[in-house]
Amino acid sequence: MTPTRETFGNIPLSSQLAFYALAAASMAVFAWGVYRRWKLWRLGTSINARDLITGSLAAVWQKIRGGAKRVAVDAGAQKRVFGHGIGTFAHVSMYVGFMALFVGTVLLEADNVLSHIHHALKFHEGAYYVAYEFTLDVLGLLFLLGTLFFLGRRLVKPPALGHRATDWYVLLGFLAIGVTGYIVEALRILWQQPTGIGAHCSPVGLWLAGVLHLDVAAARSSHFLVWWIHSFLVFGFIASIPFTRLFHFVAGPMHIFLAKNVLGAMPPVTMEEVEATGRVGPADIRHFSQQQLLSLDACMECGRCEEVCPAFATAKPLSPKRVVQDLKGAMEKTAAALAAGKEADVPPLHGTVIAPETLWSCTACSACVNTCPVRIDQLTFILTLRRHLVAEGALSGTAATALRRMQSNSNPWGLPAAERTNWTDALTPKS
Amino acid sequence: MSTPADLPAAPTVKENPSFEILYWVGCAASYDRRAQRIARAMVRLLRHAGVNFAILGKEEKCTGDSARRLGDEFLFQELATANIETLNKYNVKRIVAHCPHCVNALLKDYAQFGGHYEVVHHTQLLAELISAGKLPAVAGASAPAAAGAVTYHDPCYLARVNGIHEAPREVLNTAIGGQSLCEMKRNRANTSCCGAGGGRMWMEEDPKQRVSTQRAGEALATGAKTVATGCPFCLTMMSDGVAANGGEARVLDIAELLVERLGLNPPAAPANNAPATS
Ligand code: SF4
Ligand code: SF4
Questions:
Q1: Using one digit for the tens of pLDDT, what is the confidence trace for A316-350?
Q2: Handedness of CA B231, B234, B236, B238 (dihedral sign)
Q3: Ligand 1 atom nearest to CA at A298
Q4: Nearest CB partner across the interface for A363, out of B79, B197, B209
Q5: How many CA atoms lie within 13 A of B10 on its CB side?
Q6: A249 CA distance to ligand 1 centroid (A)?
Q7: Which helix (H) or strand (E) holds B229?
Q8: pTM of the model as a whole
């Protein structure tokens, strides 16, 4: 017999229909959640995202290939996650396990749909089936391993790592999804009683089946029950993506696609812009670009930027992670104020959201930008915010003096141009 | 073609209109007594290697890096426009600067305002000259440069921001003649800041909170007796940091170390340790 299994084996039609209804509902909640965040990003200045998809096919490809490559390398191959010891290892194993299970589920559904169209289109059998079952069975372990590591790290709570109550829910949910998945498999093996390679291609499931040791009837009824629990967990997980840290699945790759990050470059401001807007530098959240606002949602508070920040390390009032999170809070508050029609409640960024001392503490070293796994540009936020303070005359002390000297003498020392070549005198000692 | 011999040691673009490379001196080396020694070292090396160069002299203005990063965009644009005009007037194609902030500004900031030049850091030019055999080690050069272990502090605007970290090491290896470099844990693209970028060079700071103290501590922990840098800001910060740690190490620019190695320092080199502050 060719090794295979029925897709909805042991699941009556009524349950199958309920399953699809729930699937649709969870995806609707997901879409609504994404839409809510997307509306927040729309508060920013336009990045003309539509331009990306206009023109000939070749022109579109030209415009998106840089972004597509970044997504493939930074997110797909997890390049920017690397370099963080065991945390990297755990993230990558969780990611690989998760992606395998995700792609596996999509393939399973594709097979289901195709086999309904014509039974000859069914591909979930034979050697493919064996490879499929084995891969998913083993990679599921990676997923669980990563989840366990992150659960452990939540207990230890490294200082740079952000933490929200929903993180427990997410991680415990993952754990439950992984474990119930294996139990469903074990129970299926127990009632289906596959023989030969068909049984051995899921080693973890087979082992668990041995441990559970149920007769066929008991296995059938528990299989039905656990299958539903597993399904509920998965749908709950899909629906909660936009409302938890898991949103980085969506915002992370989107931002990586849009963000180029040339270190050491800053966006210019023109006099025309200043005349048109009546201000220099951002004063409220709407003065940032849509891409910058999206980046705020891509932050998962991993704390890597804070760990490398020399200002933070020397106890100055600056953490690049905090800056990103505070701006994110301002984005949410601004949207709420505008939705309520209360323009007056839009929080001013300076002073209220971010203290001037925070902005002045930055050395512009770019370490944060260089390390962020989702290419958030914390430095551009900080440096453009400084522009507003300078325009308002809020910089004082020695730095303000240096600027005045640069204005009057074209150098921060404030010495006359005539003395610029004094250093050359010592090259030819006078006799 | 080398700089004509009848000209001053560091000729201006007016004095040597047929220059091939413009040496961008920067404000620090123009006015800060300590940093001036980097510029003199560079001139000695350029002349020794027979490079045909010129400086802008009085016509050079601050690149505006600090102004831009402090948030004074229009002051920066004023300085940039003036400098671009000057550079174009003298038809400058290739620039060498020993300040990574100048390199970054000339390369990335100026390109936004129509100034396009080939800009290299002095360590890149020196590495080029060394590999072309134009800076042969003088046989029996005076005392070997940099007695004791040497470490190198990567400036962020050089190593991380512009990816230049091997050229400085190549030059250093020549300068310290086969001694191996003691690397700090944070090096190359992962280097730590000295604390002076983003306009913080011009801000006062509680000594306990200084980035430079922390970074210099890291440098001293390697056991180094010489801390090499490739940035005049880093030079100031690391010197202060070494002092704040009660350390003994010398802090020198790579060009200065190379000059020592090649024995190009004049016998009575002006030894002025106090950096000018105002
Ligand atoms: S800004 Fe980037 S590096 Fe910093 S915490 Fe957020 S995701 Fe992590
Ligand atoms: S650029 Fe500023 S915020 Fe970012 S790591 Fe450096 S000092 Fe910290």
A1: 999 999 999 999 999 999 999 999 999 999 999 99
A2: negative
A3: 7
A4: B197
A5: 26
A6: 14
A7: strand B226-229
A8: 0.95
